[in-house]
Write a structure and sequence with these properties.
The chain is α/β, with parallel strands linked by helices. The chain has helices at residues 8-11, 24-41, 46-57, 61-82, 84-89, 101-105, 113-119, 151-169, 184-191, 199-208, 212-231, 245-262, 271-284, 303-313, 422-430, 458-472; strands at 133-137, 146-150, 177-180, 234-236, 266-269, 293-296, 316-317, 320-323, 327-332, 339-341, 346-352, 355-356, 363-369, 377-380, 384-389, 401-407, 412-413, 419-420, 435-443, 446-453, 476-480, 495-498. The strands form 5 sheets. Strands 8, 9, 10, 11, 12, 13, 14, 15 and 16 form a 9-stranded antiparallel β-sheet that branches. The chain has a 5-stranded parallel β-sheet with strand order 4-3-5-6-7, with helices on both faces. The chain binds zinc ion.
Length: 501
C-alpha cells in the first residue's frame, strides 16, 4: 500500500496569512451585511446554517454522534415510508433497528450510479419533498448521473461552501477566488444570468413587482447575482484546451495574466491545470502576491504535484473534496493531505468487497448524504477510493478525516497483486520535474506509460521505467508523446486497466 507521507515543508503551516489589504475588513463587513440581504431576499438561512456548521465541528464526539444518529434515523424512516427503492431495501429493518441507525445503514447494499440511472426519478424521489427542487448532474459522460436537490439541500450546500472558505482562508468572506474547472459549461451554464439586468432594476422588481411570481423571480435572480459576484467573489476562467506544450503556453499566459490582475486569495483548479500554470509561472518568473491558498477542483494532486504548485506560487496547497451531486464533503486543515469530513452532513464508510476496511487502509468510498431529503442517498458509491482516519488532528478538530486516492476505475494491480491507486501513479511520474502529464495503461501484466515532458524525455523514461518495474514487474514500457487528451468531461484519466493481455 502507498503510505501517506506527511510533508512538513508542504503542509507545515496550518494558519493562513491574514490578508494584507487594509480594505479587506471593510469588504468583510459589507459582505456580512450582504449575507443578511440574501437571507431576506429568499427563505435562505445561509449564514445561520454556516455558523451552526462551525459550532458542530467543535462539539464533543459523543454529541456529534448523537446528532448524526438522529438525522440518519429520520432519513431512514422517511426513505422507507415514501421512496420506492428504499421501501424495498429497508424492508428487512424492524422498528428496533432504528435505535442503532449507523449499524442498520451498514446492512444495506451500496447505491451505485447504475441504481441512480435506472431508478431516476420515480423510484428515487420523495414526492413530499419534491417541491421547489432543481435537477443536478454529475460531471463525466459515460457515468453521468442526475439527481434532485430541494431548496433545503441547496441552502445547506451553499452554507458548506462558506465553511470551505472559512477553513481555507480563516474566514469565509472578504476575499476573491479564481477557479479553473475542467468543464466550464458545467459551472457557467448553471449560473448564467440570461437577462443581465442592472441590480437596481432587479431590486425594484423584487420589492414592487406587479405580481408575486415576477417578484419571486426577481428575488432569485438578485440572490444569484449577489452570491456569485459579491458573496463568494468568485471568478471562473475558461478551461484549457488540450495542446502540445508550445501551443498551451499562449493559453497559460492568458490565464496567468488574468489571475495576476484579479489578485485572488484563493486559486482552485483542475489539478493538471494548476501544475501547468505553476510550471509556466516559474518559466516567466511570475508570482501571485496576496495568494494564500491553492485547492483542487475536480481531481487530486499527489504530494509531488502539490509541492510543485506551492513552490511556484508561494502559497499553501490544501485538499478539498466534493461533487455536484453531494456538494462540499470535506476540506483539509493544512496539517496533512487528509481532509476533515463534514460529519453533520455526511456519513462515510470505507469498504472492500462488502466488508468494512480498517482505518488507514484504502477502500471503496460510500457516502450517505444526511441533508438530501428530496432524493435520499444512502451508501452512495461515487466511484472513488479513499482512506479514513479517526482521532484528534493537530489542528484541534477531532472530526473524521479522509484522503481520496483516486477513482476505482483507475486502480491498477502491482506485481505483488496489490491495488495501486491514481495518487501513487501520479506521484511516481511527477517526481520528475520536467514531466507535465502521464497516462498509464495496464493489459494483463504489461504496463505502458505515455508521458509528456518539457525536455528530451529519454532520461525521464529510463528513470520512470525503473521505478515502475520495481512495483509492476519487468514488462514495463515508458514512451513520450506530445499531448494527452482528456475525457469528454474535460478531466484527464490517469490510468486504465484491461484484463486481457
Ligand atoms: Zn486538522
Amino acid at each position: 500500500m502507498w503510505s501517506v507521507v506527511h510533508r512538513g515543508g508542504v503542509h507545515g503551516s496550518p494558519q493562513p496569512r491574514r490578508a494584507a489589504c487594509p480594505g479587506s475588513w471593510r469588504g468583510f463587513a459589507a459582505q456580512t451585511a450582504l449575507v443578511r440581504t440574501i437571507e431576506w431576499l429568499t427563505a435562505s438561512r445561509l449564514h445561520s446554517r454556516y455558523r451552526a456548521m462551525l459550532a458542530f465541528d467543535r462539539l464533543p464526539r459523543a454529541s456529534r454522534r448523537r446528532r448524526r444518529e438522529r438525522r440518519l434515523a429520520a432519513l431512514l424512516r422517511q426513505a422507507r415510508r415514501r421512496v420506492p427503492l428504499w421501501r424495498e431495501r429497508l424492508a428487512h429493518l424492524g422498528p428496533a433497528a432504528l435505535a442503532d441507525p449507523i449499524a442498520s445503514l451498514a446492512t444495506l447494499p451500496p447505491l451505485t450510479k447504475d441504481d441512480l440511472r435506472e431508478g431516476f426519478p420515480q423510484r428515487l424521489v420523495d414526492p413530499v419533498h419534491s417541491h421547489n427542487t432543481r435537477m443536478v448532474s454529475s460531471s463525466g459522460t459515460a457515468d453521468r448521473v442526475s439527481l434532485i436537490h430541494d431548496f433545503d439541500k441547496r441552502d445547506t450546500a451553499r452554507a458548506a461552501e462558506l465553511r470551505v472558505l472559512h477553513r481555507l482562508l480563516g474566514r469565509p468572506l472578504g476575499g476573491r477566488s479564481v477557479e479553473l474547472p475542467p468543464d466550464a459549461c458545467n459551472i457557467l451554464c448553471g449560473i448564467e444570468d440570461p437577462q443581465a439586468q442592472p441590480v437596481s432594476a432587479l431590486l425594484r422588481r423584487a420589492l414592487f413587482g406587479a405580481d408575486p411570481t415576477a417578484r419571486e423571480q426577481a428575488r432569485r435572480a438578485l440572490r444569484g447575482r449577489l452570491e456569485r459576484s459579491a458573496l463568494f467573489a468568485r471568478t471562473v476562467l475558461p478551461p484549457l484546451a488540450p495542446a502540445p506544450w508550445p501551443d498551451l503556453v499562449a493559453q497559460l499566459d492568458d490565464r496567468l495574466d488574468r489571475i495576476a490582475a484579479l489578485r485572488p486569495r484563493l486559486l482552485r483548479g483542475l489539478p493538471l491545470y494548476l501544475v501547468w500554470l505553476a510550471q509556466r509561472a516559474e518559466q516567466r518568473g511570475i508570482t501571485l502576491p496576496g495568494l494564500e491558498r491553492i485547492a483542487p477542483f475536480g481531481g487530486l494532486l499527489s504530494p509531488h504535484m502539490a509541492a510543485r504548485v506551492e513552490r511556484a506560487f508561494g502559497a499553501r496547497f490544501v485538499n478539498a473534496y466534493g461533487s455536484s451531486e453531494l456538494g462540499s464533503v470535506a476540506v483539509g486543515c493544512g496539517h496533512s493531505p487528509f481532509m476533515h469530513l463534514f460529519e453533520d452532513l455526511f456519513i462515510v464508510e470505507i469498504e472492500d468487497g462488502g466488508r468494512p476496511v480498517p482505518d488507514g487502509q484504502p477502500g471503496r468510498l460510500l457516502i450517505t448524504d444526511l441533508s438530501n431529503r428530496a432524493m435520499p442517498l444512502l451508501r452512495y458509491a461515487p466511484g472513488d477510493v479513499a482512506i479514513r482516519l479517526r482521532g484528534p488532528c493537530p489542528c484541534g478538530l477531532d472530526t473524521e478525516r479522509i484522503l481520496v486516492c483516486g477513482r476505482e476505475q483507475e486502480r491498477l494491480t502491482s506485481a505483488a497483486d496489490d491495488a495501486v491507486d491514481a495518487i501513487e501513479l501520479l506521484d511516481l511520474a511527477f517526481a520528475h520535474p520536467a514531466l507535465i502529464n502521464v497516462a498509464y495503461e495496464q493489459r494483463g501484466d504489461r504496463l505502458t506509460a505515455r508521458v509528456v515532458t518539457l525536455e528530451r524525455g529519454d532520461e525521464i523514461c529510463r528513470s520512470l521505467a525503473a521505478s515502475l518495474a520495481a512495483r509492476f514487474g519487468p514488462r514495463v514500457r515508458v514512451r513520450t508523446t506530445t499531448v494527452l487528451r482528456p475525457e469528454a468531461s474535460g478531466k484527464y484519466r490517469t490510468a486504465r486497466r484491461s484484463a486481457r493481455p
